[in-house]
Amino acid sequence: MSDVKIKNYMEDCVADMLDSVLKDINTCSCKKCKYDITAIALNSLPSKYVVTKRGHLYTKLEALQNQFDVDIIAAITKAAVIVSRNPRHGADELFN
Length: 96
Ligand SMILES: [Zn+2]
Hints:
By secondary structure, the protein is mainly alpha-helical. The protein has one domain. 55% of the residues lie in helices and 10% in strands. It has helices at residues 9-23, 31-44, 62-85; strands spanning 4-8, 49-53. The longest helix is centred in the C-terminal third of the chain and has 24 residues, at 62-85. The chain is globular. The chain starts with a strand and ends in an 11-residue tail after the last helix. It binds zinc ion (ZN). Zinc ion is lined by residues 28, 30, 32-33, 87, 89.
């Protein structure tokens, strides 16, 4: 069982769409702000846990992807607004 693990599929969905959503928004896209935006977006989205096997790429859950696309874009957009109002990229002690 050691090669099987549980992961939150929503993490991949947000990571996949982050760049294309941020590209259309006038927001900082440094690594720290991206992490903040990802965390805030994931907190506002439902978790979708899937079972994955190491070395085995699970098929993309297309139906799930389409169903949640709109929600994910909205969550990333909201998170980007929050982060750009109060960016933490100057607060290095939080990240180093
Ligand atoms: Zn930044």
